[in-house]
Amino acid sequence: LSLSRRSFLGGMTVALAGTRLPAATHELILAPQSIKAHLAGYDVSMLGFNGGLPGPEVRMRQGQTARITLDNRLEEGALVHWHGLRVPNRMDGVNVLTQDVVIPGDSYRYQFGVPDAGTYWYHSHYLSYDQVSRGLFGAFIVEEQNAPAVDHDIVVQFFDVLLDQSGQYDEAFNPAHFATEGRIGNTVTALVFNGTGKTVKRGDRLRLRLINPSIDRVYRVGLDGLIGKIVALDGMPLAHPRTLEPILLAPGQRCDVIGDATGPIRFDDSFGEQTLSLGEIAVSGSREPAKAPITALPANRMPAPKDPGQTAELVLQGGAGSASHNGTGTWALNDVSGLPRRPFLSAAQGTTARISIRNETGFPHVMHLHGHHFWELDAAGEAGPYRDSTYLDTGETRDILVVLDNPGSWMLHCHMLSHQADGMATWIRVG
Ligand code: C2O
Ligand code: CU
Q1: Does ligand 1 have an atom closer than 6 angstroms to the CB of 411?
Q2: Which long-range CB contacts under 8 A does 300-305 form with residues at least 24 apart?
């Protein structure tokens, strides 16, 4: 197999010699580098994978194997984490826990299968509060073996960035950001990518894959101009698609919507006091809408939970004005700030664990577990959506149930990346 470096860069699928079947392997290079991005009318010096912000959309078929080379063209370290994908531990891209940081000029080969279909994403996991806020992220889509028929499959990433007076990335370091709601940008954009390249008509059926790669900003995404259903959260299909209403999308979270366009599709955010317009997808022309009902996506294979063999409590503490904790940061988990020497939880492979997460801080958080999805349990202990990141408002408690079937050391941290950087991180050891 000989491919030029150039042809790799597009993230193409490599056909196996002598077959016309879909290739079993998907090869590409991801090269983080300095770029100029066009944001809010400015040419902003940012970072990007393969020259773009967002990075290239990685799109694979369920069951394929990814072979992705990280080619570090930054003047600093780099690592890539495959958020939500249940990869082998050594492919997880986490500094200290799973691999060494890739130094400038070096490369690293990631290889893993993608057993779960859905909407995932990849991002830097080295100084991520900084590198992700500068643009080191992209969508990672795994198509179902039997994908539902739609006219357009569109990825929408809601990204915010803090620009200074001159329209450049704000380099000022403000410790207050870390200890409060995070580093919230003053410029918000919906980065829309329609892989079909076709214009959307009224009546077309769309699959929208919404991703929040913003480091700290929570959105409540309203959609206008679409009649449809919410069909997946954090990549995983909902057994019963939900009525489309404004979607809470915390950093790192995803949501899939399938629906029929009734007009231009407008996104807005009503999380804060004022409603912000986030962007739109234009429509032109019209057609008879499809009559087929919107049904549940084919389920991914989920492990079967048993009675919890282990239970644990995780208390979210700290933030501006709170007492200090062991460790160096402002935020803490169970009285420790920063990655503890010992795991928060250690379990044999296959253990079902129930973790009760309690937010005692004055701010919301979104807790993300690597290498696994978990069920959010409702107040009655019934299993809700199967997610990889769970949002907790101030004072809120949520129990999650997880089958720890993926051996290794896995991070569990707040995905408000300023909070992670300022101490809100721990880890789980499986096997
Ligand atoms: Cu999306 Cu530990 O990260
Ligand atoms: Cu947080």
Answers
A1: yes
A2: 300/115, 300/116, 300/117, 300/118, 300/236, 300/237, 301/115, 301/116, 302/236, 302/373, 302/386, 303/403, 303/405, 304/403, 305/352, 305/375, 305/383, 305/401, 305/403
Q: Is 138 in the pocket of ligand 1 (CB under 6 A)?
A: no
Q: Using 50, 70 and 90 to split pLDDT, how confident is the model at 173?
A: confident
How big is the CA angle at 418 (ends 398 and 68), to the nearest 5 degrees? 90
Whether 40 shows a pLDDT value over 70: the answer reads yes
Q: Ligand 1 centre from 135 Cα, in Å?
A: 15
Amino acid at site 371: G
Round to whole Å and give the CA distance between 151 and 245.
22
Distance 368 CA to ligand 1 centre (A): 7
Q: Ligand 1 in contact with 225 (CB < 6 A)?
A: no
CA of 413 to the centre of ligand 2 (A): 8
Which tokens belong to 238?
Answer: 């909902």
Residue 290 pLDDT: 77
Inside any domain, residue 293: no
CB atoms within 10 A of CB 422: 25
**Is the domain of 126 the same as that of 206?**
no
Mean pLDDT computed over every residue of the chain: 93
**Tokens matching residue 37:** 């991005």
- Check whether the bond before 264 is cis (ω within 30° of 0): no
Residues 253 and 325 in one domain: no
Domain count, the chain: 3
Q: Is the pLDDT of residue 204 over 80?
A: yes
| Of 317, 321, 343, nearest in space to 423 by CA | 317
- Residue 350 burial (CB count, 10 A): 14
CB atoms within 10 A of CB 348: 11
Distance 124 CA to ligand 1 centre (A): 8
| CATH code of the domain in which 20 resides | 2.60.40.420
> Would you say 369 and 428 are in contact if contact means Cβ atoms under 8 Å apart?
yes
**Nearest C-alpha to atom 1 of ligand 1 is from which residue?**
83
Residues ≥6 apart with Cβ < 8 Å to 143: 59, 60, 61, 62, 117
Element (H, E) at 420: helix 417-421
Do 201 and 101 share a domain, yes or no? no
Question: What pLDDT, on the 0 to 100 scale, is given for residue 364?
Answer: 98
- Residue appearing with tokens 């913003």: 214
What is residue 23's three-state secondary structure? coil
